[in-house]
Amino acid sequence: MSGPGTLYARFARSAERYGDDTTALEVGEDRLGYARLRELAERLAARLVAASGAVPPRRVGLLAGRSVTAYAGYLAVLRAGATVVPLNPEHPQARTVDIVKAAEVEVVLTDTAGAGTGLGVPVLTVPPGDLIPLGDGPAPRLPEPGTGPDDIAYLIFTSGSTGTPKGVPIAHRNICAYLDRVAPRYDIAPGSRLSQSFELTFDGSVHDLFVAWEGGGTLVVPRRGQLLSPVKAINKLRLTHWFSVPSLISFASRLGTLEPGSMPTLRWSVFGGEPLTLEAARAWRAAAPAGRLEVLYGPTELTISCTAYRFPDDPAAWPDTPNGTAPIGTAHPSLEVLLLDQEGRPADSGELCVRGPLRFPGYLDPANDAGRFLTPEGRPCGDGPPTGRHWYRTGDRVMVRDGRLIHLGRTDHQVKIRGHRIELGELEAMLRRQPGVRDAVVLAVHAADGEPELEAAVEGTGCTPEGLFAALGERLPPYMLPRRVAVREQLPLNTNGKIDRRGLLEELRRSR
């Protein structure tokens, strides 16, 4: 059964149903019931409208993290009828400025004084300590938001191969269709305590927020430092539902805390954003033996996830895969998948293409649509925006085994670093712009703990590793920075005269 057609309407329905008898949000010592959180969102929405000149804004930047302001603010932007444009306070200001301009943000909401300086748009600063007292005085009277299913709910910027982040707009109809299909999977009800592990600039956060609120659960927000010790955080916060990237399993293993039976409160564990090895899955399952374990897969363009794989309760029945990673499973109901080989022919192994109600309407900059869509017949598209029947090319190589999809890698130079999608071309383009650099290559190299790290090599003169690293740090978030930058007189070439990426990768591995 489908719910309301916009994201805020779905939360408002839960607020009506659960009132203040059920906690909707827990951040540190702050606990807000559903009705209270809705009231704060309404009052904050009125302040947003006032800050934008008494006219409801079209797009609002949300420059906040892990505070009551961040989550009430997310709802407030939707209540004002605007699109949420998440901005990460930890990212370099130059990158934030680029996103604000590209998204045509009209006002920024932040939880920290001075955080919005230099963005070129009005800034509304509401520290968490100032937000809670907003319940005093008469409630504001706001018109109903004029948003509908085809309007954009949120706009997330991902790494772009041309050197510029690209905006991925997700319509209300996309995210509402996702909630209709995914939220019922996890038995959420009042008393459920769900983790909020993702930053708001990562689309997994939308799952965290609205899957929790769809069923009357409590969204529990760990501090960033707590996420580095997942087992301790889960037990301290009494979590029943956990959703994160698989990399956090490695953190728990290195701490020696991932012991059998060490997470007795967990009923559901969900992992996504990068491949989950079967070895890591077994260790986590042993630590949470009373819970169920699931993998979600999907790029931002397909609204958080488009496939799912649920592990059998009996570990003896788990599959054996060619690459030792968990299957990504089968497509969510109502989605269609198509696998194409290198010649563009349907096959049992090849690039995964998807269409259906979770597929986004096309990039913010239509120039980024080129090469990413196929006609309903599976042929390359011409000019013009994609229709609902067009296929989205994920760039992921998969195979079918026993009716399930198994992820094999990429068809391009996109990588995942602790769940973050990175186009190596973005870093390479940025390095090539630096004085003295003639060419650049960035590669993903596995570290000693098995997790991938970025390493860069440039061909040039008059430039230093320190200077290049500093230049990257001025525009890139920390997760995109390479572990090291090597400067060479010449990069290795293959027999075709192209940069020998494979040979360079072997050199980097040997030199670690």
Automatic annotation (TrEMBL):
Domain of life of the source: Bacteria
Any one Gene Ontology molecular-function term assigned to this protein's record: ligase activity
Any one Gene Ontology BP term: amino acid activation for nonribosomal peptide biosynthetic process
Record domain AMP-binding enzyme C-terminal: where: 426-498
Keywords of the record: Ligase
UniProt cross-references to InterPro entries, sorted A to Z: AA_adenyl_dom, AMP-bd_C, AMP-bd_C_sf, AMP-binding_CS, AMP-dep_synth/lig_dom, ANL_N_sf
Name of a matching Pfam family: AMP-binding
Domain annotation AMP-dependent synthetase/ligase: ranges: 11-364
GO cellular component: cytoplasm
The protein's name: D-alanine--poly(Phosphoribitol) ligase
